[in-house]
Amino acid sequence: MVSVPAYAEVGGISATANPIANSSGSVTNQAIQVLQGPYITNTYGNGIQCQGATMNVTPYLTGTGNFKRPFEHTYMDPVYDMSDLNDDGVLDNPGSILYYVPTRTGQQEVYNISGGISATWSRPLDKEAREKCMEAASTQIALQQQLTANKRLDFELARLKNCGELMKAGVMFHPKSPYHAVCADVVLVNPPGVVENHTHEITTNPPVSTDASVLKEISIGNDKK
Questions:
Q1: Distance, first Cα to last Cα, the chain
Q2: Radius of gyration of the chain (CA)
Q3: Is 163 buried (19+), middle (13-18) or exposed (0-12) by CB count in 10 A?
Q4: What is the pLDDT of residues 17-71, one digit of tens each?
Q5: Burial of 39 from C-beta contacts in 10 A (0-12 / 13-18 / 19+)
Q6: The pTM is what?
Q7: For residues 51 and 119, is the Cβ–Cβ distance under 8 A?
């Protein structure tokens, strides 16, 4: 089918019917991706590693903007002189502009901002293995604490011994020295050359009796012999 444009004569001016339709549009797709991270792994030494539950929280903020430059709220639409005073079908002042009418363009700037939080929660499913791992971790922690306590005891005994020997030798830190506190709590019970206060109980033989009867009995006894 072939169509021929139709022409119309209006007041000596030809007009062509040639309608044009324009359409435009845009589509914006936005997506939030949540990445699952690895399980949290705790290391307790001696090769013991236990995995725990993991929670991932991801805040996000997205925005879009549509605008056109130059931005114009209105434009001046000309009004032409269409007068035909002599009614001859011909415009008296063709193309003459009488005035301008401000017309809204309908132009707008569109902005869109959206935000939110995405969260995931995950934990190991092998409960028995995790409990054994935590038990091994508790044992390892207790062992480390005991080793630390042993090292502390060795240190304190060595400090006590060395400080005591130095105090016996008459060597010690100056009270204003920053290391004076190392031996500040060491007490020397028996310093050399100092005799501790003490008492002794002294016992004596019974006194000799001078009674005449006792002497007489002693002499009689000697005579019988």
A1: 184
A2: 58
A3: buried
A4: 556 666 666 666 666 666 666 777 888 888 898 888 888 888 888 888 887 778 8
A5: middle
A6: 0.43
A7: no
